[in-house]
Specification:
The protein is α+β, with helices and mostly antiparallel strands and 285 residues long. The chain has one domain (8-273): Chloramphenicol acetyltransferase-like domain (Chloramphenicol Acetyltransferase). 36% of the residues lie in helices and 24% in strands. It has 8 helices and 9 strands. The strands form 2 sheets. It has a 6-stranded mixed β-sheet. The protein has a 3-stranded antiparallel β-sheet with strand order 1-4-3, with no helix packed on it. A hairpin with a 2-residue loop joins β3 and β4 (85-88). α3 (59-73) crosses α4 and α3 (59-73) packs across α8 (253-268).
Length: 285
């Protein structure tokens, strides 16, 4: 079997976990879905504190930085399934959709960024802003993802299905060119969509069969909701809905639960992300 450019096979795993991809053969067959309500107060306080120092930080910056740090510390979240085998990625990729304008009904463009996992929130925020600025300033034709889609759409209609099926076939056999993987937003550690900017609630978004992503996170508009504060009183707080869809085959439910408990800690105190991580935790051999 050919080696993949975007991952290596994980061998040191439990037999039950190893057999799961053969029982649940597709990502859509393996999806787990849950929703979180994120207290916006810590996020707003952090954003305001940075603004006092003329530093702009957005919810998207905090969410991406939190996910990068989470995956760096919880490496099983950076796995994917291909032809029944469990792989782990060497780096952390984050895909997200950007709407360069809300004045028209044009679809957004997708950006994919690569991180080592040791970056601070400041470094990630700067990377995200530069990427969004590039996509805002230039036409879609220069975006790698849109260019790949445009190339496929130049093929005569009856052959498009054949072309896509060929890419799927190559991917399953580890023959997909690295250039296609780099351009594909679906070959990613996590896909994030910001529905808050569109003023709607988050949806439970499927994980794609094409590509390797097994984590899809959506967050939506804020609303006032009752929340338990300090474990003993109820207050009306500004809360933001966040939905998570996972491919349950590459790690078990307990691992997911502990991972998202850590993610909540980052949202409760984004300052935790200001110090660089000495090194990301590596997955099993």
């Amino acid at each position: 079997m050919f080696k993949r450019a975007d991952g290596r096979i994980v061998k040191n795993i439990e037999p039950f976990q190893k057999i799961m991809p053969y029982i649940m053969k597709t990502r859509t067959d393996s999806m787990n879905m849950f929703e979180e309500q994120i207290d916006c107060e810590p996020l707003d306080k952090y954003v305001a504190a940075k603004k006092e120092n003329d530093i702009t930080v957005t919810y998207l910056d905090i969410i991406i930085a939190s996910l990068v740090r989470l995956i760096a510390l919880r490496p099983q979240l950076n796995r994917f399934i291909m032809r029944g085998r469990i792989y782990t990625r060497p780096k952390i990729w984050v895909s997200f959709v950007v709407h360069t304008t809300l004045m028209t009904e044009e679809a957004g463009t997708t950006i994919k960024l690569c991180f080592e996992g040791t970056e601070t929130i400041s470094e990630i925020s700067e990377t995200v802003k530069k990427a969004i600025a590039r996509e805002t300033e230039k036409s879609k034709e220069h975006n790698g993802t849109d260019k790949l889609a445009a190339t496929l759409m130049k093929i005569p209609g009856p052959l498009i299905s054949f072309a896509v099926n060929t890419l799927l076939w190559l991917d399953r056999r580890n023959l997909l060119p690295k250039s296609v993987m780099d351009a594909s937003p679906f070959h990613t550690s996590v896909f994030v969509t910001n529905l808050k900017s569109l003023g709607i609630n988050p949806v439970y978004h499927h994980v794609y069969e094409f590509g390797t992503t097994g984590l899809f996170i959506a967050y939506g508009k804020e609303k006032k909701l009752p929340a338990v504060v300090n474990g003993d009183r109820i207050e009306i707080r500004k809360m933001m809905g966040m939905t998570v869809v996972t491919d349950e085959r590459f790690c078990d439910g307990l691992y997911f639960a502990r991972s998202f408990r850590l993610l909540r800690q980052f949202f409760a105190d984004p300052a935790m992300l200001e110090e660089p991580l000495a090194a990301k935790v590596e997955d099993y051999e």
